[in-house]
Amino acid sequence: LTSAALTFTPGSAGDYLIVAHGEIRTSVIGDGACQMRLEVDGAGKANISNRFAESSNYNCWAYMEKINLSAASHTIKVQLRRTGTTATANGRRGTVVALRLDQFEGSYYCEARTLASGTDATYVAHQTLNPNIAAAVKHAILGSWWMETNSNSISGFSRLFDGTVAIVENVNEAANSITNDFPWCAIYSATL
Question: What is the pLDDT of residues 107-164, one digit of tens each?
Fold first, then answer.
């Protein structure tokens, strides 16, 4: 099921920041009854399974990735599906944005696609961006990450950190000991 789709043809090949968002819910309470993903030109990316404590609330899903696109036509979709045999998947507010990165005065990007895990009681940096900025100007800062937890008795914490300031901090605790994905996204502005 497609919640949002964007089809366009770039004037030339280049790097794009693809930002996708949607909300999902399912008719079945339990583990992984619904998944949401980003699809680029027929290839699935970023499958997120959600565990639902109740069937009336929507869970938020967000994802971003830098993708090099050719000058041909491209279709980018936010999709959802049921994973259980009796579940009904519902989606709303699907959004896809494609930002051509070389059109910004300064664009800086880093990513980590590998899973970092541990049992640390303090924060450990998973990915760090240290841009070389010549003059202080206002920037839009976008961050997205997934947090995975598999404990119903120990909370997991994640945050987006700007120097000495925590911009966003999240606390997650799964309802059971099965691994659950929690997607997060933050957008803010700052002078750097």
Answer: 888 887 777 777 777 777 777 888 888 888 888 888 877 777 666 677 777 777 777 7
Look at the block and give the residue holding tokens 């499958």.
47
pTM (2 decimals)? 0.77
55-94 per-position pLDDT tens digit: 677 777 788 889 999 999 999 998 888 777 777 778 888 8
In three-state form (DSSP H/G/I as H, E/B as E, the rest C), the secondary structure along the chain is CEEEEEEECCCCCEEEEEEEEEEEEECCCEEEEEEEEEEECCEEEEEEEEEECCCCCCEEEEEEEEEEECCCCEEEEEEEEECCCCCCEEEEEEEEEEEEHHHCCCCCCCCCCCCCCCCCCCCCCCCCCCCCCCCCCEEEEEEEEEEEECCCCCCEEEEEEECCEEEEEEEECCCCCCCEEEEEEEEEEEEC
Tokens of 45: 């990316």
